[in-house]
Every structure is written in C-alpha cells, then in structure tokens.
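TICKET: design request
STATUS: open
ATTACHED STRUCTURE:
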C-alpha cells in the first residue's frame, strides 16, 4: 500500500533531490534503508538518513557525489561515503564472505533483497526506492517481514548465521527492547541466550564505546529503559554482563520505605522515573549522567544498608568500566552515588544553608546540587508496590523533603554550582608567590568563606595570612 512521506522528511529529501537525480541519470537506484525506514513506518522522526545506492560502481558514485561538494570515504572496503554539509550516509550494497572472520565486500549488482539480508533485524531490513524523489507516494520494500514484526511488536532476525557474527547486535536487541517496547521472538531469544559476545574481527572483547553507544540509546531514547535490563535478567545474562546490577536481584529492603520489593525492582522503577526528566531542564548529556547515577545509586546495598552510599562508589566504577573509560563521566556518576542520600539527610536534619554550600563544593566540578536533586526525585518515585511503573502521583513519600532541598539550594544559590571564591590569587600576590603555599592559603580562605559565611575579601585575607 502506497503512503505519502511525512512533510518534515520530504523537506530533508528535497535537499538532496539533485544528487538523487544525478545518481538515477547514471543508471543507479538510490534506496532509503535501515532505521530511517523503520522510524518512518512507526511515524517517528527519522534522524539519520541512510541511502544505499545500487547498480553503480564505487568510483562512478564517488565522482557523482564530488560534483556536489567534498566527499570523505569512511573505509573504502565498506563503501560508505559522506558528502560534507549533508547529514546523510551514502553507501553501496555489501556482501559478507562466509567464515569465522567474515570480510565485507562492495557489490553493486546485488538486489535490494540480497543487500537487506545482511541487516540485523527484519524491522531494520526494509527499504524505500527514492528514484522518483520525495514528492511521490512510496512503497515499503519489505523482503523479510519487517512491517509484520513492527505490528506484532516482535523483534526477529533476518538471518541467524549473519546475526551471530556481530556481537554488537546483542546489545542492539537490549536497546530495542527498551526503546520500542518490543520482545524478541523465540528464535532470537534462543540465539541471544547463547551468543558469543566477543568481537569476531579482533577475537577480543567488544569495544567499550560501541556498547556505550547502545547503553546511551537505551537510557535516553526509551520511555522505560528498565525493559532492556529486565530482558537481560530474564535471559539469564544480567549477572554475566553487568554483575553489579545482577547482584541487586533478591536484595531485600525495609518494606516500610520500599514496598516495591528488592533493590533491583527499586532501581528499575527509579531509572524509568529518571527517563521522564524533561530536556527543558537538563541537556541530553546531563540526563545520561543522571540516569546512570540512578542506575548505580544503590549498588552498595549488596554490602550494607547504612553506608551503602560509600560502598556503592567502587561498584559503580567497576560497572561503568564495562562500557566506558570516560573519566569525567565515571567521576560524575560516582559523585551522585556517593552523595545521593544527602538531599533527604540535610532536610531531615534541618541543616543550615552552610551545609548546602558545602555539599555543592563536594559535588563540584563534576556535578551540581540540581543534578543530585533529580537523582533523589527519581529515587523516591521507584517505590510502586502495585506494578512496575514508577509512581507519578504528586504525593510520594519524600516528595516534601526534596522540594525543601530544592528551595534550600536555591536560597543558598548553589543550584548550578558552588559559591565562587571571593579571595583569589591576585589578592595575595603582594604577599605570597604563586605556588603550593598560595594554593593552600586560597583553599583555607574558601573554607572560611563557606563555613563561616565571611564574604569580605580583606577579612578573608587577614585570616589566612595572619
Ligand atoms: N545494522 C546492522 N547491524 C549492526 C548495526 C547496524 O544490521 N550491528 C544495520 C541495520 O539495518 C540498521 C542500520 O544498519 O538499521 C543503521 O544502523 P544504525 O544507524 O546504527 O542504527 P539504526 O537501526 O538506524 O537505529 P538508530 O535510530 O538507533 O540510529
């Protein structure tokens, strides 16, 4: 059945219409392929555009693209090209050799059905012929039943042999389970249960960054990221792949505070609550840090309950190192784990503004009191005893406390970072040479400023150099 492309997508295609025409004039056939076809069918915005050009050699296609600007070849053997200034990946059809370590080869003569065979899931193995540009209606070329799989919310492999050759596909399934709220069919479930997850090309572990990319999509693009982790658990691979998370299953909690059940259940619900945070308040990168902070916040409960904030830090680190070496990211999340109990504690203890200012100093430079507030916000919502979705009612136990926390960090003006130091190096330069001594004095002055609320520069100077 023909459909019309959505207007926003037509606009994108119009920008490359001249290029498409030029390809067609050379006898080529441009197909829209991959996730963008899936997203169009689902009525979701297709962010990336992948176009696979058939029936044209790599050299001719490169020459054709060069008429429109600078071209870079992303690995000649993969036949993927980028034309600068356009957000489109252009590729030529590829086929895999068979064997333990398959190689990829461009083959322009493949039919679209043959080319789609090397894709991971049937929903990602559909295509739209763009030979007639954007204005016309389109038919989805669906050789492997992708439309049906989307309709039944079932993830299906295109080809089992090819699927298992790329271990990243396992993590893609985890991500799609969360993001599209779909379930693998029996065949895919069995394959995922037993699949080797080392990199076939290198024989070693899969690159962390590639797993991280899938983790990021799971956490940022899903309404309920927990579905991906719950799937890993049901599959029996959570303990093996993310043992720090797997260890939370069955860890009991005080039922008056946590009617929802064990620490794993609490963590899953809290993560889903964090996924609801609006991007009007935080950037995408901040949201990634916050959701990961929530995911790790109770790891320490495996060891002990009071003190789990401290115990959780090394566990969070080892969890994160399974998919990232990004120092700032890891440090940020560890700070959130270490201090996640502070919002409730400070409010319960009726602490003065100084305590909030000190907290902001401890959190800096990686995170802010506002980030910590969001972690608490999600934490208290992960307590639904009647289902798996987080609580979203206005009244949640702890809601009043964290509302006070927000008020107090605003009052103390440390919502987005600690109070700036009043005494600076230039104020001491007449008495002390720059170096470690000066560093020490400035640190001391800042401590006095925060602890005693002294904001007069001369007074601070006197205190440290007396
Ligand atoms: N693909 C694959 N196996 C992989 C990665 C990608 O078969 N390990 C194929 C799929 O057909 C996929 C397409 O390449 O649809 C593009 O991949 P990518 O852009 O990474 O993901 P998308 O499926 O487009 O999804 P997203 O919206 O997350 O970008």
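STATUS: resolved
RESOLUTION: sequence designed for all positions
ATTACHED SEQUENCE:
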């Amino acid at each position: 059945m023909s459909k019309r492309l959505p207007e926003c997508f037509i606009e994108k295609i119009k920008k490359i219409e001249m290029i498409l025409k030029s390809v067609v004039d050379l006898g080529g056939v441009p197909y829209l392929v991959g996730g963008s076809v899936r997203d169009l069918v689902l009525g979701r915005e297709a962010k990336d555009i992948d176009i696979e050009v058939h029936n044209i050699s790599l050299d001719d296609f490169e020459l054709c693209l060069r008429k429109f600007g600078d071209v870079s070849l992303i690995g000649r053997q993969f036949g993927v090209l980028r034309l600068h200034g356009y957000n489109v990946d252009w590729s030529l059809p590829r086929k895999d050799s068979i064997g333990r370590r398959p190689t990829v080869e461009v083959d322009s003569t493949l039919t679209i059905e043959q080319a789609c065979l090397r894709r991971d899931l049937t929903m990602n193995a559909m295509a739209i012929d763009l030979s007639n540009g954007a204005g016309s209606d389109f038919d989805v070329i669906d050789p492997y039943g992708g439309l049906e799989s989307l309709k039944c919310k079932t993830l299906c492999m295109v080809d089992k042999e090819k699927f298992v050759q790329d271990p990243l596909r396992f993590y893609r399934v985890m991500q799609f389970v969360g993001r599209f709220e779909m379930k693998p069919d029996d065949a895919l479930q069995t394959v995922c249960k037993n699949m080797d997850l080392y990199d076939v090309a290198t024989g070693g572990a899969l690159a962390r960054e590639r797993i991280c990319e899938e983790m990021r999509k799971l956490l940022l693009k899903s309404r309920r990221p927990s579905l991906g982790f719950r799937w890993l658990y049901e599959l029996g691979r959570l303990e093996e792949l993310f043992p720090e998370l797997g260890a939370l299953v069955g860890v009991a909690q005080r039922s008056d505070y946590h009617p929802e059940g064990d620490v794993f259940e609490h963590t899953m619900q809290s993560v889903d609550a964090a996924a609801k945070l609006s991007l009007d308040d935080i950037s995408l990168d901040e949201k990634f840090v916050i959701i990961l902070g929530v995911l790790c916040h109770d790891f320490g409960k495996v060891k002990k309950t009071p003190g789990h904030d401290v115990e959780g830090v090394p566990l969070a680190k080892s969890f994160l190192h399974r998919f990232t070496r990004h120092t700032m990211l890891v440090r940020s999340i560890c700070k959130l784990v270490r201090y996640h109990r502070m919002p409730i504690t400070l409010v319960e203890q009726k602490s003065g503004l100084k305590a909030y200012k000190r907290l902001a100093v401890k959190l800096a430079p990686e995170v802010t009191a506002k980030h910590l507030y969001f972690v608490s916000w999600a934490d208290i919502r992960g307590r639904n005893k009647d289902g798996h979705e987080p609580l979203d009612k206005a009244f949640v136990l702890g809601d009043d406390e964290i509302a006070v926390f927000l008020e107090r960090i605003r009052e103390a003006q440390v919502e987005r970072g600690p109070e700036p130091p009043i005494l600076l190096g230039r104020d001491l330069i007449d008495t002390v040479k720059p170096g470690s001594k000066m560093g020490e004095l400035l640190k001391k002055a800042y401590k006095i400023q925060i602890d005693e609320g002294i904001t007069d520069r001369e007074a601070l100077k006197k205190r440290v150099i007396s």
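CLOSING REMARK: The pocket of cytidine-5'-triphosphate is lined by residues 34-35, 48, 50, 119-120, 124-125, 166, 168-169, 172, 217 (CB under 6 Å). The two ends are 85 Å apart (CA to CA).
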